[in-house]
Amino acid sequence: MTVTVRVRRWARAVRWYLRELTGEAEYDRYRERHLRHHPLAPVPTRREYEVLRSRHREAHPQGRCC
User: Fold this and answer.
1) How far from chain centre, in Å, is Cα 1?
2) Of 4, 9, 34, 59, whose CB count within 10 A is highest?
């Protein structure tokens, strides 16, 4: 395995980890699920998704320890 391949693999892993950590990958999963379950409905933009997500959090608060 060459150094270039190792660096690319490492960079992909770091990118995946950061996207999961920050929640950015969540929209991609939502979009895929939306397309699968509602193929004819328009897909909300990332901004619209964030608004929907914020409203859901406000309407359904969860107890947190911290």
Assistant:
1) 31
2) 34
Distance in angstroms between the alpha carbons of the first and the last residue of the chain: 45
The CA-atom distances, in angstroms, between 36 and each of 26, 28, 40, 64 are 15, 12, 10, 32
Rounded Cα distance, 43 and 52, in Å: 12
Query: Structure pTM?
Result: 0.69
Q: How far apart are CA 56 and CA 54, in angstroms?
A: 5
Q: What is the largest CA-CA distance in the chain?
A: 52
